[in-house]
């Protein structure tokens, strides 16, 4: 039996605190404070909101350690509140943008648990990917959140069988705006790279590749990874992709990768497979998309269905790395 004291269910069920933080972020209260405002009436005027309601919200957050109340009706930034100045944090919290998609999507959790299928459309009228396609501004925020602005620079340090000298070209499937591919090309100067994602997404990658100094070694490919892929590369990378998809779609993606990798290429999967025997947990991509985090034993049958075989799998410093070859 666990020696931990029993949890407080009401404390665990608290929705007030996260929604107050979301609201303060959406109203850019931290930015207004940084600009020199401190009186709640001035803050309310700048944020276009009700002064009494804002005073209540900030007073509550100050009691929780977010913001400091310096006098009745006057507020200041503290270390925690300064986190709301971070652009990546704001993307994830602003309910008027992509942060609202994630926040409100949690309201569809009962439908997901009952059926195992996403219910995003119940709240937003479309499936997740269709919603991004219909709302380019939201799609751009999603790209930013999963890119360097939200998650920082990805770690390109993982080993593959035979070493990187045996690979001349990499296709990053669903590689977003190119942060991972840019880091791989920077660390391995001999590599050529192809970034494959939706057209609007790859169009936002130019600055990242130029800043990394690798733009001359990159080809952009704006398409779906459910369509035939550029053939003949030495390595097809799927980093944090397959965990977004149910089994049928995962097999379809792997089949396309297997087709393109034949006869001598390989498919490397990061951030989607875990060692056998671990405990399950709930993640946002399950709610948004009915994605799955699979153990190695759960993943292997899908790999075989796709015409691949796992040739190595194991933990490394940054990732659990699964390497596959076409059968």
From TrEMBL:
One of its GO terms (biological process) is methylation. Transmembrane segments: none annotated. It comes from the Bacteria. Keywords: Methyltransferase, S-adenosyl-L-methionine, Transferase. Pfam families: Dimerisation, Methyltransf_2. GO terms for molecular function: O-methyltransferase activity; protein dimerization activity. Residues 17-85 form the O-methyltransferase dimerisation domain. The keyword rRNA processing does not apply. The keyword S-adenosyl-L-methionine applies. Residues 106-308 form the O-methyltransferase C-terminal domain. This is Hydroxyneurosporene methyltransferase. It comes from Paludibaculum fermentans.
């Amino acid at each position: 039996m666990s020696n931990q004291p029993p949890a407080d269910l009401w404390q665990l069920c608290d929705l007030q605190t996260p929604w107050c933080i979301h609201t303060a972020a959406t109203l850019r209260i931290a930015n207004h404070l940084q600009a020199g405002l401190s009186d709640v009436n001035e803050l309310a005027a700048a944020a276009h909101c009700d002064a009494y309601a804002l005073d209540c919200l900030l007073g509550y957050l100050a009691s929780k350690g977010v913001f400091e109340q310096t006098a009745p009706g006057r507020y200041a930034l503290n270390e925690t509140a300064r986190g709301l100045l971070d652009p990546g944090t704001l993307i994830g919290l602003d309910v008027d943008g992509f942060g609202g998609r994630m926040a409100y999507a949690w309201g569809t959790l009962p439908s997901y648990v009952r059926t195992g299928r996403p219910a995003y459309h119940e709240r937003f009228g479309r499936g997740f990917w269709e919603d991004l396609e219909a709302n380019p501004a939201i799609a751009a925020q999603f790209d930013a959140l999963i890119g360097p602005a939200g998650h920082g620079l990805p770690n390109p340090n993982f080993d593959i069988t035979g070493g990187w000298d045996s690979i001349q070209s990499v296709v990053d499937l669903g590689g977003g705006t190119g942060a991972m591919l840019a880091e791989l090309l920077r660390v391995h100067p001999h590599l050529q790279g192809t970034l494959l994602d939706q057209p609007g997404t790859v169009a936002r990658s130019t600055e990242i590749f130029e800043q990394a100094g690798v733009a001359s070694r990159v080809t952009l490919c704006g398409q779906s990874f459910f369509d035939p892929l550029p053939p003949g590369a030495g390595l097809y990378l799927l980093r944090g992709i397959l965990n977004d998809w149910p089994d049928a779609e995962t097999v379809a993606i792997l089949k396309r990768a297997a087709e393109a990798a034949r006869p001598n290429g390989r498919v490397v999967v990061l951030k989607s497979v875990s060692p056998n025997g671990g405990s399950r947990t709930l993640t946002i991509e399950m709610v948004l998309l009915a994605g799955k985090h699979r153990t190695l034993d759960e993943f292997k049958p899908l790999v075989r269905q796709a015409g691949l075989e796992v040739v190595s799998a194991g933990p490394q410093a940054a990732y659990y790395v699964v390497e596959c070859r076409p059968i």
